[in-house]
Structures are given as C-alpha cells and as structure tokens.
Amino acid sequence: MATIGAKAVAGKDVRRRIVKYKMLYLMLLPAVAFLIIFSYIPMYGASIAFKEFWITKGILGSPWVGFKHFEQIFATDKFWQVFTNTIEINLMRLLFGFPAPIILAILLNEVRHRIFKRSIQTIIYLPHFISWVTISGILFALLSNEGLVNSIIVLFGGDPVNFLTSNSMFRPLLVISGIWKEVGWGTIIFLAALSGVNPDLYEASVIDGANRWKQIVHITLPSLLPIISILLILNFGSMMSGGFDQVFNMYNPMVYESGDVIDTYVYRIGLTQGQYSMATAIGLFLNVINFVLLIAVNSAAKKMNGHGIY
Amino acid sequence: MACIMLYPFWHVLVGSVLPYEEAVKTRFNIIPRSISFEAYEYVFSKNTILMSVVVSVFVTVIGTLYQLLITSIAAYPLTKQDLPGRTAIFLFIIFTMFFGGGLIPYYLLIKSLGMVNSLAVMIIPAALSTYNLIVLKTFFQNIPIDLEESAKIDGAGYMRVFFQIIIPLSFPALATIALFIAVGQWNNWYVPMLFLNDKELWPLAMVLRDVLINNNMELTRSGSFVSKDFMLGDTIKNAIVMVSVIPIIIVYPFIQKHFVKGVMIGSIKS
User: Fold this and answer.
1) In this complex, do A136 and B128 lie within 8 Å of one another by their Cβ atoms?
2) What are phi and psi of B39, to 5 degrees?
3) Within an 8 Å CB–CB cutoff, is residue B143 touching chain A?
4) Residue numbers in B near A249 (CB within 8 A)
5) CA–CA dist B69, B181 (Å, integer)
6) Fewer CB near the terminus (10 Å): N or C of chain B?
C-alpha cells in the first residue's frame, strides 16, 4: 500500500512538474518537430528498400518485395568494388590522416613562442572553412596537365603526370588533400587536452633527467590517450561513409575504379538513374554497418581502457 | 608548414589578378609583376554571378538566424535537470547523429513537401545541428543558476529568462556557432545541386561548382572576352574562387579566438 501511495504521489509530482515546465516543452517543440519531419520520416522512408517503389503509388502504396533488392545488390560486381573501395580509402585515411593532427599538435605544443604558435594555429585552421568545391578547383589548377606541378616537372625534364585521371594517383590525392584541409582543425582538440596537463609533471620529469623526447613519450602521449581512443571510435563508426563532399568534387569517370565510394555510388544510381529502391537498400545497408561498428568498437574500447563515447 | 597551407590560396589570388599577357608568358608567379582587376570587373559585370551572390547572402543571413534560434531555444530546456522526459528527448535528438534514412528517402520527402526549386529548401530543413545543440547546452549549463533564480523571483518566465539572461551571457558561444552555421550555408552546394534545377536560384557556391568542376564555360568565355585565349578563363575562374573565399577570410579573425573554446566544449561532452 505504502509503495502504491508513494507512486501516486510521485505521479502527481511528475504531472505538476510537466505543467510547471510547459513553457520549456514549448521551446523544445520546433526542434523535435523538425527532427521528426526531416530525420525520422526519412528513416521510415528507408522502408522502400524492401519495396518495389513506384513514384505514382508513393511509399505506402508500393508493394513489399522483401530482400529482393539486397540480393540483387550483393550479386553485383560493381557494388563489391565500391564497397572495398570505401573500406580501403577509409583505412588509408585512418592510417595516414588520423595520426597527422596528433603529431602536429605535439609539435605545436613544443613551440614556446606564443605569438608564433598563435599565428600558425590561425593559418592551419583556415582550410577547414573552405568548401571542397573550392579546394577541388584549386587542386585542379595546381595539378592539371598545364598546371603548376606539371609545369615544374616539365621544367626539370620530366614527363607530365595525369594526377587527376590516373587510378594509381587518385587515392593518395584524396588522402593528402584531406590531410591538408583538416589537419589543423584536428589539432584543436588535442591541443586542448594538452593545455590541461599539469606543468608539474614536466618539471618533475626534468629533475629526473628526462629530455624532450622522453617527455613526449611518457607525459604528452599518455595524456592524449583518452581523447585518441574516443576519436578512433568515432572514426570506425563512419568506416562506410566515403566523405561524399571530397570524392564527389574530385572524381571523374576515369577514376571510378579506384575512387567511387558507396556514397557517390548511391547518388549516381539513385538520383541520376532513378533506381530509388536499389539506392535506398545500399544506403540502409551502409547505415546499419556504421551503426553496428560504432557500438561494437565503443564497447570494445570501454572494456580495454574504460574510455567510450557513452 | 604555414607556407604549405597558404600557398594554394596565394596561387589562386595571384592567378586572379594577373593581366592576360603576363599569365600567358609564365606559369610560376610567386609575386605578380603587374596587377589587373580585369577579371573581377568581368565577374561583377555578370548578372548571373551578382544574383548568385545576393542569393548566397540572403540564404546565409536568414538561414543562420533561423538555425541559431531553433538550436539555442531547444538547448536551454535540456539544461534543466528535473525536466520530466529530458533524457528521452535528448536521446531522441542524439540518435539522429548516428543513424539516418539515407539520401533517397530524404530526396523523396523534400519533393513531396514541394520544396524543389524554391529557396526554402536551403533554409527550412536545416533547422538544427545536433553537434551545435550539444555545444550550446554545455555552455548554458555553466551559466550560474543564481542569475536565473533572481529573475524568476522578479516574475520572469522561462522565455524571458532565456532571451534576457541566457542569450546575452552566451554571446561568445552563439557567435561561434553562428560562424559554423554561416560558413556551412555560404559553402552549401549540395542542397542546391539536388533541389534547385532553376539556375536563377543558384547560390555562389553552386555557380562556382558549375564553373570549376563541371567546367561549364558559359561564364568564363563569353562577351568581350570571347576573342581571348583559354588562359583568361583560368583568370576568371580564380577570381570567382576568390569572391567565394574572401568573405570567410574577412569574418574568420573576429571569431577565431572564440571557436577554439566552442569546439573544446563540444568535444569534451560528446
């Protein structure tokens, strides 16, 4: 009886609080409404992956076909090519792109001259704010056959290289330009972590006779570990997304073989060829893998060192 | 390091002010020997480009105010620890960060809402960024609660507290978020590419994409320039790039000192 009474009181309390906070709910309303319309309705719309979608019939009216589209996709060579491309490109990005901001942040942290450090930071953050359209445009100007780099190669007696249309060049180009654009931005978070390190640690280590290198290995790197593991998890959680912006603005039919990723493939077969159900099925497959990866890696990381994202 | 970061921009800047004769003669121009603003005059004489700049400015200003309002007004209630259902609402919002319906269902939705070929598509659906919401929520949480409570004793409701206390105190955070949103809107080519077939509605980013990536030469080789060579097309391209980059470079230093803090707040919590 007592517990029921307590529950009733608690229920009344909740009701009173809801009334008291009605203005706050009203303030949340626009955001929630927009998420329902523009995020959750498309999630429901993803059901066309299991339907034979006809525009005239709409999502509700189209007949269910089960896993037909998925079977079709998995039987396509092109899909597996795009799938492996995405994984390979992301692994390359992880291998070269992930450590880059960490290294740069450690180097910047060693710079003692404040104004110099500040101005470098200002400059290296800038490319993050420029869109891939613009950056691809600049890259084309630098790397096209008559561009700057090839002019220099020719000047020194070499043969011009087809940077933009060669399958062997395209991936390194993606990775390098990606690093160029985002490395500075990536340092922010590591520098923030480093500014929180207790200076006493460094002083103590100097007394113990540690040089700069030993300080980096024993103090700087360990203090970055939690943030590194969190970012690694997030990176794994987007293993299946290919960085649509970058690839879409840099690629051309000549490099589809090495550069076409799932995101760009979905765009092409979905919106330019109108295969709505097929494209949705691929998109859904990719989203599910990303989501599962994120959860798996997160729980693994939590077990190993106690740092997860939730 | 800084040189590697800056050179590509410098290359384009120099490329945009080189007079035609100079540009033909040499390809390595670290310091231009003579400067001409011919390409800029041409760019600004084109109605297509002027209109696209107007569209971009409109979409950026309205879109930023709108998104900032909806994001901040939603972030505030989430700071109230004893708001019933707070965690559930927060999870409901966060989930959209990690899972989505995909491109095609989104495309069909926008189409069925009749937003194709209307500038509304660049503004209305971009109401909320989950990441910005987290940053603002964290910032609001750190505002001393005493201020709010004394205002409440004076009879102010949540709405008034929000607009008269929280907003003025959060100026640095709001400015940072506003920069992120504004840059996103200014650079947005993806939404217009998907939904604006009507070239008259194109923002500058989309015109830029048409000229740079699709190599549409309508703009770079017409009118009085038609007699001149392909090189001039490059000069004009460079000038259009600069027109799109310069506003960002101008706004950037004012907000730069704030955003580092903003990013830190966001990253610690997420």
Assistant:
1) no
2) -60, -40
3) no
4) 209, 213
5) 12
6) N
Of B258, B260, B70, nearest in space to B173 by CA: B258
Contact of B238 with chain A, judged by CB distance below 8 Å, is answered with yes
Q: Is the pLDDT of residue B99 over 70?
A: yes
Look up the ipTM and state it. 0.85
Residues in chain B closer than 8 A to A23 (CB atoms): 157-159
What pLDDT does B221 receive?
Answer: 59
List chain B residues with CB under 8 Å of A131: 187, 189, 205, 244
With CB atoms and an 8 Å threshold, state whether B212 touches A136. yes
Digit-coded pLDDT (tens) for B32-58: 777 778 788 888 888 888 999 999 999
Q: Whose CA is closest to A247, among A126, A86, A97, A81?
A: A86
User: A62-104 pLDDT, tens per residue?
Assistant: 888 888 899 999 999 999 999 999 999 999 999 999 999 999 9
| Gyration radius of chain A's alpha carbons | 26
Q: Which residues of A touch B120 (CB under 8 A)?
A: none
Gap between the Cα atoms of A39 and A162, Å rounded: 41
| Interface contact B217, partner A, CB < 8 A | no
* B234 contacts chain A (CB < 8 A): yes
Q: Copy the structure tokens of residue A28.
A: 């949340």
- State both tokens at A212: 């700069």
Whether B80 and A21 lie within 8 Å, measured CB to CB: yes
How many CB atoms sit inside 10 A of residue A37's CB?
A: 15
**Mean pLDDT, rounded, for B62-67:** 95
B116 in reach of chain A (CB within 8 A): no
Give the integer Cα–Cα distance in Å for A57 and A154.
Answer: 59
Residues in A closer than 8 angstroms to B213, CB to CB, are: 133, 136-137, 249
Q: Which pair of tokens denotes residue B87? A: 């965690």
Nearest to B74 among A30, A133, A227 (CB): A30
Instruction: State the DSSP string of A156-186.
Output: TT-----TTT-HHHHHHHHHHHHHHHHHHHH
CB contact under 8 A, B84 and A140: no
Give the residue ranges of DSSP H helices in A67-166: 68-74, 77-92, 99-110, 114-125, 132-143, 148-155
Q: How many contacts (CB atoms, under 8 Å) link A and B? A: 214
CA atoms within 13 A on the CB side of A193: 23
For chain A, the 3-state helix, strand and coil shares in percent, each to the nearest 5, are: 80, 0, 20
Identify all chain B residues contacting A42, using CB atoms and an 8 Å cutoff: 100-102, 105-106, 109
- What length does chain B have? 270
Positions in chain A short of pLDDT 70:
1-11, 305-310
> Does the pLDDT of residue B63 top 90, yes or no?
yes
C-alpha distances (whole Å) from A52 to each of A271, B101, B113 are: 16, 17, 22
Contact (Cβ atoms closer than 8 angstroms) between residue A247 and residue A170: no
Please name the residues between 35 and 64 in chain B that touch chain A, using a CB distance below 8 Å.
none
N-terminal to C-terminal alpha carbon distance within chain B: 30
- Nearest residue to A52 (alpha-carbon basis) of A35, A67, A31: A67
Residue partners of A236: CB distance under 8 A and separation at least 6: A293, A294, A297
